[in-house]
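Hey,

The postdoc asked me to send both predictions to you directly instead of through the lab channel. I've kept everything plain text so nothing gets mangled by the mail client. Protein one:
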Amino acid sequence: MTRNDLNNSLLTLSLGFTLGLFTATHLLRLRDRERLRKACSRTQKHLIKGQRAALGVDLTRCCIPNISKGKSRQRVVVLGAGAFGTAMAYAACQGGNEVVIYMRDARQCEVMNREHRNSKYLTEFSLHVEGEADIRGICTLEELKEELAVPGVVIIHALPCQLTPPWFREHKDLIPKDALICVTAKGLYLPTQQLMGHAILDALDRAEQPLAFLSGPSFASEIMKGDPTTLVVASDQLFQAVRIQRIMNNFKTLRVFTSDDPVGVQLGGALKNPLAVGAGMISGMGCGTNTLSAVVTRASGELRELCIAMGGNPRTIDGLAGTGDLMLTCFSPQSRNQRCGQRLIHGERVEDIQNNTTVEGIATADVAIVYADMCGLELPIFRCVHALIHKKITPEEAIADLMGRPIHHEVVHH
């Protein structure tokens, strides 16, 4: 065989190999595309009609929707016209959705519909959103039932934690079984010592009610002012978290991330409250930034320990629902929990403080200790805050206890 014949044979072999590789790759891609199409079809089968319509996308046609370009208009019903409920309604309206706020006060409702503002909370802010339909107020159960009957309705729950399960228990017949409930309350339910999601499901007597949990560093007044704010929304079913993300994210002042760790997001949002009470106590004692920074850092580690023990993801505590919210409530005088800690150190009673304001950190501190005992965790900062709230120790004894603990290597969690 001549050199030319050998070269021609090698060229033919190379071309054949390249063509075969291209054909095999193309067939594998077709196979994977068909597998993906079938997987999406199976996912679609598990969605009931209302959920499929509310998604705004057809999973059999498009597996990964481009949520930054165009989105379907949603009917959003906000339960509670307090400061945070008002801010959530305003944010959802900015996102181009039809928003209704349910409240019990007929006068407050009438003013909202006439003047486009909340006459009780955040009164200095207009609720009118340029280019969008105005937020509507409703105040009767008949109106609420009518709004909740809209297919694909999303409920944003903004009631105080301890009132939430009783409200859902009393009105469970109004709540459609396929309606997505987005919980914004950051706390634990004291009577049953439950996470808010578990307490809501028990109150509704349903295991399959779709739930999502919205949390993160966010004061209502700053959302209304348009200060750039970031939040996280978590759900066991990630597509439900994406639904809330699409409703609330406006690509201008509010940015929402998703999570599949509702346990971690709930624990982070709830358990930062007693820690913020402790931060207020530190300020009330006259201690400075050295002390506060040390306690917040070490408390974050305790929060991570408890999250792991309760079945959450410790990385969640490193994010917006954990460290982010913890810094907000511990360092800002706007925090009700932080102000409560200062008032307690100055001698006021818990009962007097709670007469005119809701302080979730008081009730949550009790449940946090129950969780710590259940999981066999020491959590010295949580325990000191709890003891100070209930006047079991003095501030001087708390400092001596924490500073006098055995010295050891700092453990940094990865």
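Protein two:
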Amino acid sequence: MKQTGVQDVSRQLQSAVFSSGLTTKLICLFCIIGYFLSYSPRCVHILAVIPGRVMPPNFWIWTFVTHSFIELHIWHTIIDVIVVFLYSKMIEPLWGTKELLRFYFIVTIPNALFATCIYFLFYGFTFKEEYLFQRPIYGLAAFIGAYSVVIKQIMPDTVLATTPFFKLKQDQVPLLIILISIGLWFAHAVPIHFLIMLSFGIVISWTYLRFFQNHQNGTKGDMSATFSFASFFPSPIAPIISILANTIFGLFVQLKLCKPFVKKYNVASSSGLTITIPGPDAADADRRRQKALKALNDRMKAKETANESWPDLDEPNQIPFIDPAQNSSVTIDMTDLNESTSGATKEDLNQPFFDIEQQQQQQSSS
């Protein structure tokens, strides 16, 4: 069983490597190169984000781009490469190379900026200079967290594993990896910036996909209920998260940072009720909407079939019902028929006799 599982993973990884696009291959190649560069402390100091170095007068702002390619441990690099190859195999054909590259920079650059601000807060509370100069920010944790959000958007109801106690769905992966990273941080297996970058990567990617991503069908964002922020949490606490998220969204709308949510109903459609919701292209999130509409149409067809199964009271081959209370005699109006028959009889039957009398008179006169 273990050999079969390893063979399946290796086969999928080989297929992903050969079928992946240029952006995916470049990201993985830079991650491998960054791992070998990490053996030099000088390269780590120059390429990773050092909060004290991005401030004036240094302005090492290029580290916001290069920090994601640096990894200090080989198992971190292996996980990064495997996740990027496997997930990009599904995402890049749907989005395209440019959109995937844009998504990468949208997630990683603001994430490094937020992590830097968190380190500044740590320094403000503790006055320890190690948060400014001795704790670099590096790694691809933000992009891995963002990938978990994208897969949740594309396949929200996918069951990843089934156990006797629970079923692991794709909806639960983002929160699960945050909990796992918290446990690894307590075990000193990952640094604090890994947890910060992973969490902010999930939040930033969800915000971009929810409100700002442009799609080929002219829509923006994904306002479907299955992609709400409350759907990331278990059902017992989802209503509380929903209230908090709706309050923050209303505040963003008032500040004109987001547009209000608008639904468009096309009641003139010939195929029933059509709902147009701002969201991804039909290749990804519309798949679940089409599934819901298909279920609705099937129910409507089943209802129509049930109505058609009742017998019709006016079937043409059915014998007409005669009320016994009415007169059972049948009256046929023969007036027109008698008149036409009597007229034809007088003319047709008497005509030969008139012709014989005329012939006898002509013979006698001669």
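Summary for protein two, as requested: The beta strands are 159-162, 167-169, 264-266, 274-276.

Thanks,
C.
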